[in-house]
Design a protein that fits this description.
The protein contains 13 helices and 23 strands. The protein is α+β, with helices and mostly antiparallel strands. The chain folds into two domains: 330 residues, Bira Bifunctional Protein, Domain 2 (BirA Bifunctional Protein, domain 2, 2-Layer Sandwich); 101 residues, Rossmann fold (3-Layer(aba) Sandwich). Strands 3, 7, 8, 9, 10, 11, 12, 13 and 16 form a nine-stranded mixed beta sheet that branches. It has a five-stranded mixed beta sheet with strand order 20-19-21-22-23, with helices on both faces. Helix 1 crosses helix 9 and helix 5 packs across helix 6. The chain is globular.
Length: 451
């Protein structure tokens, strides 16, 4: 994309309404525009990152054997009355009445609707196990929406639901989701720590939240510092292997890590003092096993091998897709702007032309732009007739991981400058060498994108 043809309404000053870093930088970088309290339009740059995060979630869910579908945002209230949650959920649920005086709601989650789909089409244990998921806009009427996309009223969420014959099978689905989430977050450049949590209005005896450590986190968290040394890496997991998934779960949950809601001071004090940590965390996902809570209430049963009929065991599993974008910025920024990890960056590399209109620099930039695109990259070419300082400031603000700077002085020696946004380190290379270096850097990202 040529910046002269792109819609990137950056701001020079910090917006007064922004209280935390991610909100401030998203507004300044032209990623979002507030339309109402807690409700945002996603402008092109923000939308690109949102779609990159969504793609990773889709890929990892399907890698784990989960099947995508799409449910509506508006739900009939009668389904929630069947489960008993319509009155219990609280004022965060936006309740409405249509022109036929039918009670409806803007879905905050989809346990009831997915259970209705299941009971309408699945009758036998032979169709199990089954996990269905979707990525869909949700609405929760927060009393005080704040912090931009971190605590908005409208948000994009992945929610998945497993249906299994037995509790053991459902707990394997739980473990499988935990593993797939760990892989998803690492691909986004995040370390999200699974922590024992409270089931809340969804319910369930087994539940873990995934939290990213950040000073602006809404939760106080207590953990053993050893957990931050764990990496999922490129290990090849067979999601159908119960033992393998259980081993990963044990590895990542055996050390103490809890939110303030479930914190046990006595257990925490058993950790060596040098490893005890108290910090803030941003919730970016949660997994639940809640057994037959919804299937019994709504008649979601299957015929077993002996001919009897039993309610299925269920769980639900959510990832805050739009919230993740804010969490990544909170975890990866500096005083100049955003620092995107390679896996979610809106553009892989920025090209800065230091002397727009000069025949040699224009030609070299065009050649680099075409070569990068032909090699599978999505570059952003700053071809504006602007001073160099303004171009550098824009690139730093929007946070692309790599920048190629092209100017007459360097080209006289057949050199361009390749700069890392994260470290600030620059290297002078021939143009083709810069392309080859970027290919090597992005090879793991492109390999993950291709499954």
């Amino acid at each position: 994309m040529r910046l002269s043809r792109y819609f990137l309404p950056v701001l020079k000053e910090d917006p007064k309404e922004a209280q935390i870093v991610s909100h401030r930088l998203m507004l300044r970088a032209g990623m979002i525009k507030q339309q109402a309290a807690g409700i945002y339009s996603w402008l092109p740059l923000g939308y690109k990152v949102l779609r990159r995060i969504e793609r990773i979630v889709h890929e990892e869910q399907q890698r784990a054997g989960h099947i995508p579908l799409l449910m509506p945002t508006l739900q009939p209230a009668d389904l929630w009355r069947e489960s008993g949650r319509y009155d219990a959920y609280g004022e965060e649920m936006l309740r409405i009445t249509d022109r036929h005086k039918r009670d409806m709601l803007f879905g905050p989650t989809n346990e009831e609707m997915i259970t209705d789909i299941f009971r309408s089409h699945v009758n036998s244990y032979k169709d199990l196990p089954l996990t269905l998921y979707h990525i869909q806009w949700k609405f929760r009427d927060e009393i005080r929406p704040r912090f931009g996309v971190m605590r908005g009223r409208e948000f994009l969420m992945k929610d998945g639901y497993n249906f299994d014959l037995t509790k053991d099978d459902a707990l394997h689905a739980y473990n499988r989701h935990l593993v797939s989430y760990l892989r998803s977050y690492e691909r986004m450049g995040l370390q999200a720590i699974p922590m024992r949590a409270d089931g809340g209005p969804i319910g369930g005896d087994y539940t873990h939240e995934f939290l990213v450590l950040a000073d602006t986190g809404e939760s106080e968290v207590f953990y053993d510092s050893e957990i931050t040394d764990l990496k999922f890496g490129d290990r090849d997991i067979d999601y159908d292997d119960h033992t393998q998934c259980q081993a990963v779960l044990e590895e990542f949950t055996s050390r103490y890590a809890r939110t303030d809601e479930t914190h046990d001071a006595a257990l925490f004090d058993q950790i060596p003092e040098a490893r005890r940590r108290v910090a803030r965390g941003i919730e970016v996902g949660q997994i639940f096993y809640f057994g037959t809570k919804y299937s019994e209430a709504m008649g979601a049963t299957v015929v077993t091998p002996d001919g009897s009929r039993v309610p299925v065991h269920m769980g639900s599993h959510g990832i805050g897709v739009s919230r993740l974008l804010g969490a990544i910025i909170e975890a990866s920024h500096d005083d100049k702007g955003i620092v995107w990890p390679e896996g979610v960056t809106p553009f892989h590399v920025g090209i800065v032309n230091l002397k727009q209109g000069d025949a040699s620099t224009d030609s070299a930039c065009e050649a680099l732009y075409k070569e990068l695109r032909a090699s599978g990259f999505d570059p952003l070419y700053d071809d504006r007739d602007e001073r160099a300082g303004a171009k550098f400031a824009t690139m730093d603000l929007i946070g692309l991981p790599w920048r190629i700077t092209v100017g007459p002085r360097g080209l006289a020696n057949n050199k361009v400058e390749l700069t890392s946004r994260k470290t600030g380190v620059s290297e002078e290379l021939a143009p083709q060498e810069a392309v080859e270096r970027l290919k090597a850097i992005y090879a793991p990202v492109f390999a993950s994108d291709n499954g």
